[in-house]
Design brief:
6 strands; 174 residues; six-stranded mixed sheet; alpha/beta; Double Stranded RNA Binding Domain
């Protein structure tokens, strides 16, 4: 009887401590442990698109601040353990669909290509992607009296998507 009780108790303890195999994990940050502060100076804009670099830089800073515990600096200083630099290489705007009655574009696609690198204070590369390409579609207003440019909100959506992807890629070392 004692053996049966002992076996039952061990079986119950095993069942209680066993899990189904699912568990919550946090994302593993693959940056060196020495990185606590990241400088994110304003990105460079090699295009004719006004303010593009400002919108993208602000989105990346906001994403780092909300998702990580890194201290984010506006300028590369001695306090920065790493520096993130970005360059807007190209922007393109292309019509996607046309209104069959007027022949005018009814939707368009904005495409932005970026070059990004994260280097530590010694100049060693921690992350680099020379060809980030992001696209966002938007509708073109048909009413001239209530004409509203939708490309600015599309660029805002694109910048948030870019920032989420970039920060995830840096943290997960893709």
């Amino acid at each position: 009887m004692t053996n049966r009780f002992l076996i039952t108790a061990l079986l119950m303890a095993t069942l209680l401590t066993a899990s189904c195999g699912y568990h919550a994990t946090t994302h593993y940050v693959r940056l060196p442990e020495s990185v606590h502060a990241i400088a994110v100076p304003a990105f460079t804009n090699q295009t004719q698109n006004y303010r593009m670099e400002q919108v993208l830089t602000a989105a990346v800073v906001r994403e780092f601040v909300t998702r990580t515990k890194f201290r984010i600096l506006n300028e590369p200083t001695d306090d920065a353990d790493a520096t993130l630099r970005g360059t807007v290489v190209s922007t393109q705007l292309a019509p996607l669909t046309y209104d069959s009655q007027t022949g005018r574009a009814s939707s368009a696609l904005v495409t932005v290509t970026m070059r990004v690198s994260l280097v530590d204070r010694r100049g060693a590369s921690l992350f680099e992607n020379p060809n980030y390409t992001f696209r966002e579609q938007y509708q073109v207003s048909r009413e001239l009296t209530s004409f509203f440019e939708e490309d600015s909100p599309a660029i805002d959506r694109l910048s948030r998507d870019f920032a989420r992807t970039l920060v995830s890629n840096i943290l997960e070392a893709y």
